[in-house]
Structure formats: C-alpha cells, structure tokens
Amino acid sequence: MFRLRFPASEIPRWAARYSYPGEDRIVDTLGPKARTRGYLKRGEFLALCYWKTPRSQPRCARNSAAQIREATEIALASSDERAKMHILRSLSGVDWPTASVILHFCDHAPYPILDYRALWSLGFPKPPSYTFAFWQAYTDFTRQLSRSSGQEIRTLDRALWQYSKEHQGKAGA
C-alpha cells in the first residue's frame, strides 16, 4: 500500500533540509508540557490547529476550554487508537490531519502526521478519503519505517514533508 519514494538511508538528509515556521515552540515547549500534563489547554490546542491549517481556526475556536481539556485528556490517556481519533475528531474543526498533529506532538506513543505531502512521499499522488483503516495502516507503516531506519517519527515526518516539497509536481517525480 505504501512505498517510500526515496531510500530510507536518506531520511536524515531530507529531514535536515526541513524548516517550517512556528514549529520550534510546538516541539520544544507546547508538546512536552501537554504530554506531561496529559491534556491541552485551549491556547495550545488553537496553536496546534493553526500550525496544521490556519483555515480551520474559526471552527476550532468554537470549542470551549472545558471541551478541549476533556477531549484531549481522554484521548491522550486512552490506549485504544480508534477511540483516540474518534474523541479528537469530535472537537469542532478537527479532522484526521489535525487529530494526527495532536497525537504526534502530545501523545506518549509515536504518531505520524497525516498530510498530503507525507502521503505523496509514500506513493499517493492524491490523498485517498480518510478512514480509520487507512489511518491505522499509515500509522503502522510509518512506525515500522521509523524502527527499521533507526529514525524518530518526527525525523521521518520532516523527511517525508520535505521530499514532497522539493519533488511533488516536478516532471517525472
């Protein structure tokens, strides 16, 4: 189903070329605090949603601090992956990609970010419709690739994104 478009040995090289505005604060501060606390505060939630897709901000802002805390606390504490996604996606403005961002930065387990660029780097010219089965297969594949390459899931995610940014849309890619 998934096929890496470049050799796994090049993951560190592509990840090193990656740069995305605002990510340092999320990686260095927001994610670790939420992981330790076990839930997201409203401002943190809105920052993650904005980082993933600014277009969703008005919908995400409809969630109250209590709704965000309860949903993220339950999702991050659960060991059931289907429940995690279902609970996060119950929040206004949160669909598969944004829920994956919350898990990627805030959960103790490694989760990839579901993104059209990452999917392109894994052989999907156009993202399919997202289902739990697809998301689980993507998560399992990226976790295995992370283990077999010896790279953290964040490093892999950066490499997939960057490779697509530099190659997607080019003739012969």
Explain what the structure shows.
- 62% of the residues lie in helices and 0% in strands.
- The mean pLDDT is 94.
- It is built from ten helices and no strands.
- The chain has 173 residues and is mainly alpha-helical.
- The relative contact order is 0.17.
- It is globular, with a radius of gyration of 16 Å.
Name the helix and strand elements from N-terminus to C-terminus, one letter apiece. HHHHHHHHHH
Structural class: mainly alpha
Mean pLDDT: 94
Shape: globular
Strands, count: 0
Low-confidence stretches: none
Number of helices: 10
Q: Work out the count of structural domains.
A: 1
Helix-strand layout with pairing:
Layout lengths: L10 H6 L6 H15 L4 H11 L4 H4 L4 H13 L3 H9 L6 H11 L9 H6 L10 H18 L3 H15 L6
Helix pairs in contact: 2-3, 3-7, 5-6, 6-7
Describe the structure in brief.
The chain contains 10 helices and no strands. With 173 residues, it is mainly alpha-helical.
Q: What would the keywords be for this entry?
A:
62% helix, mainly alpha, 173 residues, globular
